[in-house]
Amino acid sequence: MLRFYLTILVSMPWIIYFIIKRKYIMKNKDAYPMEERYAFVKRMIVQCMRNGRIRTKAYGLENLPKEGGYVMFPNHQGKFDTLGIMYSHEKVCTVVMDEIRSKMPLADELVDLLEGCRLNKSDMRSQVKSIKTVAEEVKSGRIYIIFPEGGYYHNRNVVQDFLPGAFKAAMMAKSPIVPVALVDSYRAFGVNSLRKITTQVHYLKPLYYEDYKDMKSKEISDHVRLEIMKKINETMEAKGKKAPNKIPE
Question: Is 177 helix (H, G, I), strand (E, B) or coil?
Fold first, then answer.
């Protein structure tokens, strides 16, 4: 957490500007197309990464669908996860976020600017409505990030169980499903160190509708989780470290 607080402190002038500019943009939405808002968010991310001595390397960008909307499903490690993906993802994308967490400083501004989805986990009817809304937006060409793990708490590079229901929006939209393996993302804001660190984002081979149309959400969930675990293990072993995930036989 030391790096997180240092990043906030050093970036405070930029953060204040970001918050003020967000209010102005939201009052004048028509003057700021989504591409311009996304570029603004990415400038904030780059500034925070620079101040926090964080570098992110992206792999598998060629796997991302060239046209249309799709949903990315990453493992969840911490506060930096969404930022690492957006930093490396050229096209405009947004995120589905727990409503309570989305009200935190900076997260609130990011969700507003990119018109993300705030998910009320305590209201099932609201959740169903949100999933349908996301599905319709993906059909129209939007790109979403959805974290299928229930949360992150000292996960590090160990992938936790996935919630099959997280895949419903993509299934309803019949959109590509892109597994995303995050490696060492937790180190950005979850380790008490100020040393330079490098996180990794691996965009894996997508599942297209033709690939999963006969699969149930649990089967899709298990497949995506397995591919992410394999990539994380492969990456860690390449660094001479022990594979953190136990692969089912």
Answer: strand
| Residue that the structure tokens 């949903």 belong to | 71
What is the DSSP annotation of 210-247? Answer: HHHTTS-HHHHHHHHHHHHHHHHHHHHHHTT----SPP
Non-local (6+) Cβ contacts of 246 within 8 A are none
CA distance 215 to 164: 12
Residue among 190, 141, 143 nearest 3 (CA): 190
Locate tokens 């991310």: which residue?
45
DSSP string for residues in 113-169: HTT-EEE-TT-HHHHHHHHHHHHHHHHTT-EEE---BS--SS-TT----B-GGGGHH
Give mean pLDDT, residues 162-173: 97
| Phi, psi for 64 (deg, rounded to 5) | -70, 135
pLDDT at 142: 98
Write down the pLDDT at residue 8. 87
Give the Cα separation of 112 and 98 in Å (integer): 13
* Beta bridge partner(s), residue 95: 145
Mean pLDDT over 130-150 rounds to 96
Nearest to 102, CA basis, from 124, 130, 74: 130
Q: Is 146 left (phi over 0), alpha (psi -120 to 50) or beta?
A: beta
With cut-offs at 50, 70 and 90, classify the pLDDT of residue 199.
very high
Residue-wise pLDDT tens digits, 95-134? 999 998 888 878 999 999 999 999 998 888 999 999 999 9
Question: What are the residues facing 74 on neighbouring strands?
Answer: 180
